[in-house]
């Protein structure tokens, strides 16, 4: 894993081109106004305390209301009960409140919020409303593009609630947390654009962390990934998530992502 981290880090140090389409974090930029994105997110993670793997399927639909506001809805399906079961859904919105543009760079800031409900059992100290916990999250994200090198960072507050109807949140665990992310991206191919139908190949390096506010337990993960954008509309993400540090109980911290996405533009014309 160390060799993989070194290789990806060298790509970012040497690179001069990038895109703001990260795999596990969201940048401050929005999807275009009037566009509809359909994504099939999948993950398979190795279980820590029992044999086998945890598989999650997350269909998503994203819509750009205008240049500053977008909304998204997601569904959670997993094999935790040894069969594919729908466990919940999520509703997300992001508002871009700051945008500055220069000749070869731009800077964006946005506020976001998410509410999720989930009926699965609560089986870890990590709070994750994207697939595990009922609750809400709110935060801000900033993204800088300089000579097409993308750097993005976010901080958010996340609160877990009971997973109704059967699972109350344990009183012995912290039910709220501070989340923080840093993401970098680089366009590897093509070296020079000739038309919008060229396939783009991007590499990403994302750091994702959380600190439980009531007891100080925390974790930090690294997520190297490769991304293909086809005909400026279809997108394929392949990523691996590796725990770098953790002082909290996590049931399945390490594993792979595979996202498939297709975008329909200018639907409101």
| Number of DSSP-assigned strands | 12
**Overall pLDDT confidence:** 91
* Number of discrete helical segments: 1
In the CATH scheme, what's the topology name?
Porin
Topology as a string of helices (H) and strands (E) = HEEEEEEEEEEEE
The span between the termini is 47 Å
Anisotropy-based shape: globular
Question: Can you name the CATH architecture?
Answer: Beta Barrel
Rg for CA atoms: 18 Å
The main sheet comes to: 12 strands, antiparallel, barrel
Percentage of residues in helical conformation: under 10%
Instruction: Trace the largest sheet across and list its strands.
Output: 1-2-3-4-5-6-7-8-9-10-11-12
Number of domains: 1
Structural class: mainly beta
Q: Can you tell me the residue ranges where pLDDT is under 50 for at least 5 consecutive residues?
A: 2-18
CATH domain class: Mainly Beta
Please state roughly what percent of the residues sit in beta strands, choosing from under 5%, 5-15%, 15-25%, 25-35%, 35-45% or over 45%: over 45%
Keywords: Signal
Organism: Flavobacterium glaciei
Signal peptide: 1-18
Protein name: Outer membrane beta-barrel porin/alpha-amylase
């Amino acid at each position: 894993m160390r060799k993989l981290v070194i290789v990806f880090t060298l790509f970012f140090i040497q690179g001069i081109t990038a895109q703001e389409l990260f795999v596990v974090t969201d940048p401050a930029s929005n999807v275009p106004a009037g566009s509809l994105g359909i994504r099939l997110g999948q993950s398979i993670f190795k279980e820590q305390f029992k044999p086998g793997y945890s598989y999650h399927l997350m269909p998503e639909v994203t819509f750009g209301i205008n240049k500053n506001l977008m909304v998204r809805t997601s569904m959670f399906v997993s094999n935790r009960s040894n069969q594919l079961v729908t466990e919940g859904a999520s509703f997300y919105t992001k508002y871009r409140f700051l945008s500055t543009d220069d000749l070869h760079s731009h800077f964006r800031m946005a506020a976001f919020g998410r509410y999720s409900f989930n009926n699965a059992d609560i089986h870890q100290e990590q709070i994750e409303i994207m697939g595990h916990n009922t609750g809400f999250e709110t935060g801000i994200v900033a993204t800088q593009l300089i000579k097409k090198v993308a750097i993005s960072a976010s901080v958010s507050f996340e609160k877990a609630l009971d997973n109704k109807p059967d699972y109350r949140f344990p009183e012995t665990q912290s039910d709220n947390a501070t989340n923080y992310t840093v993401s970098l991206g680089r366009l590897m191919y093509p070296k020079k654009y000739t038309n919008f139908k060229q396939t783009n190949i991007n590499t990403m390096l994302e750091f994702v962390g959380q600190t439980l506010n009531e007891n100080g337990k925390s974790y930090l993960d690294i997520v190297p990934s490769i991304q293909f954008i086809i005909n400026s509309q279809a997108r394929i993400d392949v990523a691996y998530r590796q725990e770098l540090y953790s002082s909290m109980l996590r049931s399945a911290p390490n594993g792979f992502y595979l996202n498939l996405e297709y975008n329909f533009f200018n639907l409101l014309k």
